[in-house]
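Entry: Methionyl-trna synthetase
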Amino acid sequence: MCLIIYGCDAEERELGRQAASGACPSCGGKVQAVDVESRWRLCFLPLCFIIKRKFQCTLCSRRLVLYSS
């Protein structure tokens, strides 16, 4: 028996933006916090629902990563 899996879908939707503290290390621009909702589906069946906060520079649109010590 052969099982073919297709129809996997990842959907991202922006929930909101907020000003964050700090400056971009490469260009010195302001930083924004973007809340993103991710949904993973397999053939119309929801598998995963995640809300993440991503940081982005307003001038160079570079994605910034926070490192905890």
